[in-house]
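Request from the bench team (R.T.):
"We need a structural guess for the complex before ordering more magnesium ion. Sequence and SMILES attached. Just send the tokens back."

Command: build protein-magnesium ion structure.
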Amino acid sequence: MGDRNLSDFFQSYIKKQSIFINKKVLQDQHTPSEILHRKEQLGQIASVLAPCLRGEKPSNLFIYGKTGTGKTLAMKYAQGELESVAKDNNLPLQIIYTNCKMKKIAATEYRLIAELGRALGVDIPPTGLPTDEVYNIFFNRVVQAKALILVILDEIDVLVAKNSDEVLYNLTRMNADLQGASLSIIGISNDLRFTELLDPRVRSSLSEEELVFPPYNAVQLQDILRKRSTEAFKTNAIGPGVIEKCAAYAAREHGDARRALELLRVAGEIADRAESEQVGIEHLDLAEDKIEHDRMLEVVQTHPKQHQVVLLSMLRSPTHQGVVQTGTVYDTYRELCAPVGLRPLTQRRVSDIIGEFDMLGIINAKVHSFGRYGRTRNISVQIPSSLLPTVNAILQDALHLPRI
Ligand SMILES: Nc1ncnc2c1ncn2[C@@H]1O[C@H](COP(=O)(O)OP(=O)(O)O)[C@@H](O)[C@H]1O
Ligand SMILES: [Mg+2]
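Reply to R.T.: structure attached below.
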């Protein structure tokens, strides 16, 4: 800002033109005016749930697909349409949407059932009752309501990870005695392997119907981006090739529309700050770097201490032609555990942690086999050198080690 004073800066900031008309359109909470490329999935959701409009209990439904494939969007849209038809026709339908990742709702079985009860208008104290009693209150309320109830459990894998599958067992079993009322579960998960962990009985009742949301391909992402960018940006604010490259970036990972939209928004912000009238490829590339860097720092910051020690060990181990081997990392790790005050994990467990960092793209590990002499992994760190000082500082501070 040099020697311009702040007031001047703020004044000119107000006058400065932005290339956005409405940045919110690119944010996650915004509901788009149209859902593209999900006709088939919406049709399937509709045909599974439609029986409730005739007073019949719909099958339970399990929806899965990677993040950003439009699951929440499609389900909320279907919910809205069902509710309005039910209302116009005076039908006793109640749909309860809960995101198990939000507001600690799913932290305990008690809280979840209390929350569902509250959605049906019965006040259950947030703590204090025996869990059986909470179930009873909820159960009686459902019977009393004489309604068809659809419970949408979004991010249902979080619920099961925090508790067990017992809550699902109990909910799906309830129907047996509901005397006219009914309760259907719609579970949504980003984790494709989640049902493998379920008790087979729970799995088969949750998955009476199953629906997959496949990743978007680059062309579909382009359509989604184009549509939303016309509402978010001024005319001609997007330079040639930007939408295509943005879609290609997002498709390269796994066709995540959330990531594509975020990338375009950040590129727009960078272009704005550079006082450019158009988002260009250069802004997009900077946005990609920024998001990638933020994500890495987040991973480094939020991982448990043992993981942080393993990562620091990989950074500190002597490399040979840019790679370091698992055994060397383990030696460094054991040495580091003492000053950090942790008990060393087994080499096998450390290997697992290394594998997790590999999946997150923080490192790259290639298995190297010595035939019958065994195998090791050649590890190369993928953190860009510009970020290394920050990463080192974060790790050393988190582990209370002196900065070196
Ligand atoms: N087909 C689509 N058309 C327009 N926007 C979409 C579409 N699919 C996803 N989005 C947008 O992408 C983001 C992620 O979608 P979401 O439904 O939350 O994904 P998921 O629940 O599968 O992780 C949201 O901002 C959503 O509005
Ligand atoms: Mg979702």
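Two things stood out. Strands lie at 61-64, 93-99, 148-154, 182-189, 209-212, 324-325, 363-369, 375-381. The radius of gyration is 26 Å.
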